[in-house]
């Protein structure tokens, strides 16, 4: 870990809640809202989230699986996300979610008109904005946890997913 945590303190709770309470608490609320208020289907949500986790290298986020109504994606899903270009496990929306997450995280200057034509053929503008905000959250907060070495210290909060 790259920040000092007082003895007996939960690293995630301390960094996100106590070290910078104004920013950390707001960031945690945003992060949780991405999960609690999402209207995206589970497969496209998880394809984008996992692709960002893979790019960030966040160990906890790569192991996490979002659950909705008692359902999670299949165990092989993460491997399919890594192979989003060629897997036959994805429909067009799921494949586009993984592609968008990768491009957003690694090559956002080259998201071109051809890509937007494909996205708007499968996603509404509202869904594109929601997916963009979700990817931004995962990119920022997953990377923060990885960079600070918190990704090996994550424990699930009682009320939701990883921050």
TrEMBL record:
Classification via Gene3D superfamilies: AhpD-like
Protein name per Swiss-Prot or TrEMBL: Alkylhydroperoxidase family enzyme
Family annotation (PANTHER family): 4-CARBOXYMUCONOLACTONE DECARBOXYLASE FAMILY PROTEIN (AFU_ORTHOLOGUE AFUA_6G11590), CYTOPLASMIC PROTEIN
GO molecular function, one term: peroxiredoxin activity
Domain called Carboxymuconolactone decarboxylase-like: residue spans: 24-102
Pfam families documented for this protein: CMD
Keywords linked to the UniProt accession: Oxidoreductase, Peroxidase
Superkingdom, taxonomy of origin: Bacteria
């Amino acid at each position: 870990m790259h920040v000092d945590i007082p003895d007996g303190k939960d690293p995630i709770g301390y960094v996100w809640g106590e070290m910078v309470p104004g920013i950390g608490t707001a960031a945690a609320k945003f992060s949780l809202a991405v999960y609690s208020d999402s209207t995206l289907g589970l497969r496209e949500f998880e394809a984008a989230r996992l692709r960002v986790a893979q790019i960030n290298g966040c160990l906890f986020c790569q192991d996490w699986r979002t659950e909705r109504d008692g359902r999670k994606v299949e165990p092989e899903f993460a491997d399919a996300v890594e192979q989003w270009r060629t897997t036959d496990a994805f429909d067009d929306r799921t494949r586009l979610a993984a592609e968008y997450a990768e491009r957003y995280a690694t090559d956002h200057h080259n998201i071109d008109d051809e890509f937007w034509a494909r996205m708007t053929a499968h996603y509404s503008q509202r869904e594109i904005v929601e997916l963009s905000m979700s990817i931004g959250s995962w990119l920022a907060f997953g990377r923060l946890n990885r960079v600070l070495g918190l990704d090996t210290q994550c424990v699930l909060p009682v009320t939701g997913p990883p921050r």
